[in-house]
# Entry
Amino acid sequence: MKVIIHDLGPEYETLIEQKCGQAVAADGKYAPCQGCFGCWTKHPAECFMKDKLNQICRIIGHADELVIVTKNLYGEYSAQVKNILDRSIGTSTPFSTYRDRQMHHTLRYGKHDLWKVIVYGEISEAEKATMLYMAERNAVNDGYERSEVVFLDDLTELEAAL
# Structure
């Protein structure tokens, strides 16, 4: 299943929903992670907060392909997208293992195929390098076989990038 997390406005909902199995709008209509680690231990992969991200760990955990559409924020994800990723810590367990000779948390849902980030907005070369490195490390940490980053000059290029 392809999951798209995006911080775009409602005018892009139809396009996004046509391109995936599940869309998650980073619209800010949810609470930020409280850092309780309950999704790791007390109720695995389920957040205690009863909002639209309550099941985000399971949604992301079942994604073969995760596509993140984000506005550039100094070479990082937008704050709204970052909040969603923070709330998805339950896709792994508190236990550790070695993957590719590096220590990582054990995956709750196994390996995935593609971690893809589509970045829009002005971005410098240094910010591009930061985004490329971050996407690569996020992919490894969350058990994705590969990562890809696409930089858009204009949102009119979005449909082709999805």
The chain has five helices and seven strands. The mean pLDDT is 95. The first helix runs from residue 13 to 18.
